[in-house]
Amino acid sequence: MSIEVNNLTKIYRLKRGQKKLAVDNISFTIPDGEIVGFIGPNGAGKSTTIKMMTGILVPDNGSVSIDGLNFKKNRKEIMLKTGVVFGQKSVLCWDIPVIDSLKLFRDMYRVPKDVFKENMDAFSQILGLDEFINHPPRLLSLGQRMKADLAASLIYNPDILFLDEPTIGIDVLSKERIRQFIKNINEDRHTTIILTTHDVSDIESLCEKMIIIDKGSLIYDGTLPQLKSIYKTTDLEEIIKKIYLAGEQRNAKIC
Ligand SMILES: Nc1ncnc2c1ncn2[C@@H]1O[C@H](COP(=O)(O)OP(=O)(O)OP(=O)(O)O)[C@@H](O)[C@H]1O
Ligand SMILES: [Mg+2]
Predict the structure, then answer these.
(1) How many Å lie between the centroid of ligand 1 and the Cα of residue 164?
(2) pTM as predicted
(3) Residue 88 has what pLDDT?
(4) Is the beta carbon of 40 within 6 A of some atom in ligand 1?
(5) 40, 79, 93, 206: least surrounded by Cβ within 10 Å?
(6) Whose CA is nearest to atom 6 of ligand 1?
């Protein structure tokens, strides 16, 4: 499924009438079946954009269209087709065993029993769910919690998966497994994936296309090889540092 974002804008209303323009009129398209890296410095507006793309926040202006569907008219339909993981906040019930939350998702999304079993088998094998599936999230380590969240967001076979910092605070080996898992999901199920991360190697190993925002504005929308050729280096970390530094100094646009 493809995503079209048009002139998306979000203004947070703060105390004493103050306002914060968090997302400033951005537009982009995410083609069906791609893994897109959505990056930018802290406070750039990435999570705010993802919240608008998943219907958690209502934009002040602009629109999000998911395969021609929009949140005003087709909210339920979109919800059934999208999964989301926030690395900083779990979607699971804090106090009940992970397996019970997964069963709750199964019932909410009306996942057929055989599909549930098939997915559980696959996720258990790759993510090692068995080790902690009977524990509640509050007793899990960060990496285990992330794996449980990934399983929950994919148990109903969504066509689009939003991942907001899924590898934050994860050890190198678990990170590698999570990356491989994301890659497999994209290849086997043709799931469109939007990935926010501050880990350059996540981008290197997963994304062909990149969207960069800074101070709420879109500053790059293109492929990783194109970006490397613009900067005449293959060192992505170096490129990103330059972009963020330029953004601090002025409202730089690369294109
Ligand atoms: N609920 C909120 N109320 C007011 N301001 C907010 C709220 N959430 C975010 N902001 C502000 O909006 C801007 C964008 O925040 P956002 O969380 O979208 O950034 P981000 O790109 O996800 O950053 P990070 O990489 O640190 O996660 C920031 O200046 C932030 O302080
Ligand atoms: Mg964020």
Answers:
(1) 13
(2) 0.95
(3) 87
(4) yes
(5) 93
(6) 12
